[in-house]
Amino acid sequence: MAATFQVLGAATGLFFSGSFDPQRLHLPSIRSVSERRTGFLVVRSDGHIVSSWNFPARRTQQFITSSIATKANEAASATTSKPGHELLLFEALREGLEEEMERDPCVCVMGEDVGHYGGSYKVTKGLAEKYGDLRVLDTPIAENSFTGMGIGAAMTGLRPVVEGMNMGFLLLAFNQISNNCGMLHYTSGGQFKIPIVIRGPGGVGRQLGAEHSQRLESYFQSIPGIQMVACSTPYNAKGLMKAAIRSENPVILFEHVLLYNLKERIPDEEYVLSLEEAEMVRPGEHVTILTYSRMRYHVMQAAKTLVNKGYDPEVIDIRSLKPFDLYTIGSSVKKTHRVLIVEECMRTGGIGASLTAAITENFHDHLDAPIMCLSSQDVPTPYAGTLENWTVVQPAQIVTAVEQLCQ
Amino acid sequence: MALSRLSSSSASRCVDLLINPLAAAAAAIPRRLISSDTTPITVETSVPFSVHNCDGPSRSVETTPKELVSFFKDMATMRRMEIAADSLYKAKLIRGFCHLYDGQEAVAVGMEAAITKKDCIITAYRDHCTFLGRGGTLLECFSELMGRKAGCSKGKGGSMHFYKKDSGFYGGHGIVGAQIPLGCGLAFAQKYSKDENVTFALYGDGAANQGQLFEALNIACLWDLPAILVCENNHYGMGTAEWRAAKSPAYYKRGDYAPGLKVDGMDALAVKQACKFAKEHALKNGPIILEMDTYRYHGHSMSDPGSTYRTRDEISGVRQERDPIERIRKLVLSLDLATEKELKDMEKEIRKEVDDAIAKAKESPMPDPSELFTNVYAKGFGTEVYGADRKEVRSVLP
């Protein structure tokens, strides 16, 4: 969702729950917000009213570019670097993958239709022509064995990137991912490293049906030895892809079907993000909202409403699903004392459940209210559009939750 | 003849020669105690190879006296190690699962003779002897079985997770059949780096019914990988006989488009010949399936007596007629490469070696508590990890 805050609260067409169209999302440049620098009043939880002419000035500057972190801002203001280039999220993934394949001849891609077809979401388009059949491999429909083969190749030092056409198909490879990918480094006493990247789109799409709308982060999160990251913007998609490939540990990179066409301006220079860091999307004072992947955009949409209602939410895109960036999260909790988790996983045993446990255990003393966790309903995703909208968390629910939390 | 008074070794050898007329003929030729010749000998395999979609190798195997004696020594060491592991398990020093390989030693030894340490071997959980064949030491073996620090996986793997990266032994896998795609991945990496080596992916007759085998074989044949799939057919998948589990127990034919070869797995020389043939084939024409017709004397694991689904007569019958060590012993004796006594002395020495290794392994300490958290991730990120009680055993993930 647009990371800009139209501080005047002008309604845009994006408010309607559930029908937001990622195709129409464009992150505006800095100038459009600086025109509208009117302030707003913030009511703190202790009742103290603060006139906010001071910090919004800084804050608008910050949160405009927040989804691009601080780099693009610096890039724009620095005279030495170029302004960057615009691209869609799947192109960013491809750029990251291509740069890594160029840099290291051990990187190869395996998956269904990644080669000649160009990838079912075009992430690997053009790579087979450039790198040949041995580095971009079309596999038959045999997830269990080609994931196993990727792991076997990784044991010798190759760095395969295994693509699941849809994350849900990787359930067929669960044995390989859990037992071999996650555990081999440990059971061999450190002899083998498994520098594999397993990636693919998951999440609830647009009426794709139950089996194609799965969120596997909840199933994989207990596997010891793997790292999980979820990308949400073109900037972090490219950075996380590069970091995942360079990592010595097995990394599962969760993409989202509906986010592939997000457009953003990313730097021209090479950059790699940290796999274990969370991203501060919008700093705030009242409540910490933790989210990842597509729900980030629902949260930002809700944040618009919340800001108009006078709340100041701090939005953090946790990005690293395993392990959690408890440092960033903890600093935020210590500041705001209230936590709302918004996720697309199921309620039972999801990322939110683990995160709730982790925060309660570590930061219990800093919480003024119980942690609220908004997750998808514990149902198979229905086909009907209206029902599908009701399975995932909608911005209106987020607004209500924050209001409830901040009472 | 007061021969019993004579005590010098040369004198006792004279006694042997006198008593044993066959060896008298050879007595005229001065020879060393145990032959370490490298002059080639040709031996015929006792059972012909069955082939599927290929011309198998010839039945005449080239070997040398040195190799035959080393076969005997290696197989006797493996046998002794497995029997010792049996007693250790019953003494509760080895816990959990312990799958013993005695009876099947010829497969491990024959394969080693045909390949180099740059070729990769990956197998399932019956991996103690394969590990030894790849260059593992008895100390590493016993320490790992007993969960000690000196083990090959630092005590964290156990019986089913022996690995030796520097000599191309990729384990050691507990889940039936899961090692086959891994093995094809190793072959893929070998093809990728163009180093003219092959991978042997071993599995059992039980695993031969796993879908992932056929998936991996399909991909390996499509991409022309130097993978050799070896079915160690000991005729029982735990308690289920092969005819009850497989509609077609001709495992070497199951590859359909991939050529197959059935080998007498109790004959180390036949195994060597087949593996050599398979290596050449895989490097030129792609994957091939080998079926080793072998037998295990113990049950599936230590918790299985091994006699509920097969008769004791069957087990002792195989032991009498097809035992791999006895076969090599007879061959060595008939070719007069060593005397009976020398072989017995060798076995005594092996027994002592094994006992020493066990004693040393028992002295090795258990891993430190901090080892619980090491090697979960490679190159850490500084996250602190607490033990279950949140107070003790803290460490930073490495």
TrEMBL record, chain A:
<dbReference type="InterPro" id="IPR029061">
    <property type="entry name" value="THDP-binding"/>
</dbReference>
<dbReference type="Pfam" id="PF02780">
    <property type="entry name" value="Transketolase_C"/>
</dbReference>
<protein>
    <recommendedName>
        <fullName>pyruvate dehydrogenase (acetyl-transferring)</fullName>
        <ecNumber>1.2.4.1</ecNumber>
    </recommendedName>
</protein>
<keyword id="KW-0809">Transit peptide</keyword>
<feature type="domain" description="Transketolase-like pyrimidine-binding">
    <location>
        <begin position="87"/>
        <end position="262"/>
    </location>
</feature>
<keyword id="KW-0479">Metal-binding</keyword>
<keyword id="KW-0150">Chloroplast</keyword>
<dbReference type="InterPro" id="IPR009014">
    <property type="entry name" value="Transketo_C/PFOR_II"/>
</dbReference>
<dbReference type="GO" id="GO:0009507">
    <property type="term" value="C:chloroplast"/>
</dbReference>
<keyword id="KW-0786">Thiamine pyrophosphate</keyword>
<comment type="function">
    <text>The pyruvate dehydrogenase complex catalyzes the overall conversion of pyruvate to acetyl-CoA and CO(2). It contains multiple copies of three enzymatic components: pyruvate dehydrogenase (E1), dihydrolipoamide acetyltransferase (E2) and lipoamide dehydrogenase (E3).</text>
</comment>
<comment type="subunit">
    <text>Tetramer of 2 alpha and 2 beta subunits.</text>
</comment>
<keyword id="KW-0934">Plastid</keyword>
<dbReference type="InterPro" id="IPR033248">
    <property type="entry name" value="Transketolase_C"/>
</dbReference>
<dbReference type="GO" id="GO:0004739">
    <property type="term" value="F:pyruvate dehydrogenase (acetyl-transferring) activity"/>
</dbReference>
<keyword id="KW-0560">Oxidoreductase</keyword>
<dbReference type="GO" id="GO:0046872">
    <property type="term" value="F:metal ion binding"/>
</dbReference>
<dbReference type="Pfam" id="PF02779">
    <property type="entry name" value="Transket_pyr"/>
</dbReference>
<dbReference type="InterPro" id="IPR005475">
    <property type="entry name" value="Transketolase-like_Pyr-bd"/>
</dbReference>
<keyword id="KW-0630">Potassium</keyword>
<keyword id="KW-0670">Pyruvate</keyword>
From TrEMBL, chain B:
<keyword id="KW-0670">Pyruvate</keyword>
<dbReference type="Pfam" id="PF00676">
    <property type="entry name" value="E1_dh"/>
</dbReference>
<dbReference type="InterPro" id="IPR017597">
    <property type="entry name" value="Pyrv_DH_E1_asu_subgrp-y"/>
</dbReference>
<comment type="function">
    <text>The pyruvate dehydrogenase complex catalyzes the overall conversion of pyruvate to acetyl-CoA and CO(2). It contains multiple copies of three enzymatic components: pyruvate dehydrogenase (E1), dihydrolipoamide acetyltransferase (E2) and lipoamide dehydrogenase (E3).</text>
</comment>
<protein>
    <recommendedName>
        <fullName>Pyruvate dehydrogenase E1 component subunit alpha</fullName>
        <ecNumber>1.2.4.1</ecNumber>
    </recommendedName>
</protein>
<dbReference type="GO" id="GO:0004739">
    <property type="term" value="F:pyruvate dehydrogenase (acetyl-transferring) activity"/>
</dbReference>
<comment type="subunit">
    <text>Tetramer of 2 alpha and 2 beta subunits.</text>
</comment>
<feature type="domain" description="Dehydrogenase E1 component">
    <location>
        <begin position="74"/>
        <end position="369"/>
    </location>
</feature>
<keyword id="KW-0786">Thiamine pyrophosphate</keyword>
<dbReference type="GO" id="GO:0006086">
    <property type="term" value="P:pyruvate decarboxylation to acetyl-CoA"/>
</dbReference>
<dbReference type="InterPro" id="IPR050642">
    <property type="entry name" value="PDH_E1_Alpha_Subunit"/>
</dbReference>
<dbReference type="InterPro" id="IPR001017">
    <property type="entry name" value="DH_E1"/>
</dbReference>
<feature type="region of interest" description="Disordered">
    <location>
        <begin position="301"/>
        <end position="320"/>
    </location>
</feature>
<keyword id="KW-0560">Oxidoreductase</keyword>
<dbReference type="InterPro" id="IPR029061">
    <property type="entry name" value="THDP-binding"/>
</dbReference>
<feature type="compositionally biased region" description="Basic and acidic residues">
    <location>
        <begin position="310"/>
        <end position="320"/>
    </location>
</feature>
